[in-house]
């Protein structure tokens, strides 16, 4: 008789503490994470930044694929993003850093399931809730100088559609587990941050 092997996550939540930071394109995930890093001892891992770095890494076999997915506002196949995150987490753990803000991930159900099954269960989710018209204005403004290939009206529309169709179900899934902290972020950065600090005070 064969028995199915049940894999264990690489880390326990006591060893590695992960907060997922989710929200639509331009909601302010990166901005708020930067502030949290200054005030708390978090490592900030932005999935989009890891993918952009891999895209630009000389010799990467995934460069062209990542470039196309990002421009089209589509979710890069999970194997690539999971490997980048797993490596980044392991490197930091080796250097005694154990608290992570994972920004912009998971944004598709398969990623959520795989990450928690293989790497570690998340502690809670910070969800930045922002109206689309506000996000649009922010991204168009940032697009004047960001150089990001997806900060243009065609790509932004595709990113919004992917967020609604593919990423919102991830937030709804975590809501059923009651570990989502919802923060409105159509307010000045420092006001949003006050709400973030109040919301996480009892959870860290
Ligand atoms: N700004 C921020 N907060 C503000 C406030 N309160 N008031 C006024 N202005 C505010 O902010 C955006 C802009 O708004 C900035 O100019 C900021 O100053 C201003 P930012 O903090 O950068 O917002 P953020 O939510 O981080 O927006 P970002 O554009 O990074 O979000 P995305 O989720 O679209 O981008 P990400 O880099 O995570 O992903 C890009 C692409 O990578 C995805 O579309 C996808 O193709 C791919 N991807 C995957 O395939 N898989 C993944 O797991 C992750 C990404
Ligand atoms: Mg970002």
| Average pLDDT, all residues | 96
| Gross morphology | globular
Count of runs of 4 or more consecutive helical residues: 8
Strand numbers in spatial order across the main sheet: 2-3-1-4-5
Biggest sheet record: 5 strands, parallel
Beta strand %: 5-15%
Count of β-strands: 5
Following the backbone from N to C, one meets helices and strands in this order, namely EHEHHHEHEHHEH
Instruction: Return the structural class.
Output: alpha/beta
Query: Which stretches are low in confidence, meaning pLDDT under 50 for 5 or more residues running?
Result: none
First-residue to last-residue Cα separation: 45 Å
Assembly of the depicted chains: single chain
Can you list the ligands bound to this structure?
P1-(adenosine-5'-P5-(uridine-5')pentaphosphate, magnesium ion
Percent of residues in helical segments?
A: 40-55%
Subunit structure: Monomer.
Main location: cytoplasm
Pfam family, one: ADK
Region (LID): 141-151
Keywords, separated by commas or semicolons:
binds P1-(adenosine-5'-P5-(uridine-5')pentaphosphate; cytoplasm; Adenylat_kinase_CS; 13% strand; alpha/beta; 204 residues; nucleobase-containing compound kinase activity
Molecular structure report:
The protein is globular. The protein starts with 16 loop residues before the first strand and ends with a helix. It is of the alpha/beta class and 204 residues long. α1 (29-39) packs across α8 (189-200), α2 packs across α3 and α2 (47-56) packs across α4. It has a 5-stranded parallel sheet, sandwiched between helices. It is built from 8 helices and 5 strands, in the order βαβαααβαβααβα. The mean pLDDT is 96. The chain binds P1-(adenosine-5'-P5-(uridine-5')pentaphosphate and magnesium ion (MG).
């Amino acid at each position: 008789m064969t028995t199915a092997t049940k894999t264990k996550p690489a880390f326990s939540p006591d060893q590695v503490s992960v907060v997922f930071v989710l929200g639509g394109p331009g909601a302010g995930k990166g901005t708020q994470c930067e502030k949290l890093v200054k005030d708390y001892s978090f490592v900030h891992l932005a999935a989009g930044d890891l993918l952009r770095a891999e895209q630009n890494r000389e010799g990467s076999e995934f460069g062209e694929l990542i470039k196309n997915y990002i421009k089209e506002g589509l979710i890069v196949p999970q194997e690539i993003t999971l490997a980048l995150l797993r490596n980044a987490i392991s490197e930091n753990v080796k250097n005694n850093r154990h608290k992570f803000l994972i920004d912009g991930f998971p944004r598709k159900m398969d990623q959520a399931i795989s990450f928690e099954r293989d790497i570690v269960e998340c502690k809670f989710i910070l969800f930045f809730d922002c109206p689309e018209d506000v996000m649009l204005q922010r991204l168009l403004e940032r697009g004047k100088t960001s150089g990001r290939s997806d900060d243009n009206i065609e790509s932004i529309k595709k990113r919004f559609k992917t967020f609604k169709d593919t990423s919102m179900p991830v937030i709804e899934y975590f809501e059923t587990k009651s570990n989502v902290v919802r923060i409105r972020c159509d307010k000045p950065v420092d006001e949003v941050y006050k709400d973030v600090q109040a919301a996480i005070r009892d959870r860290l």
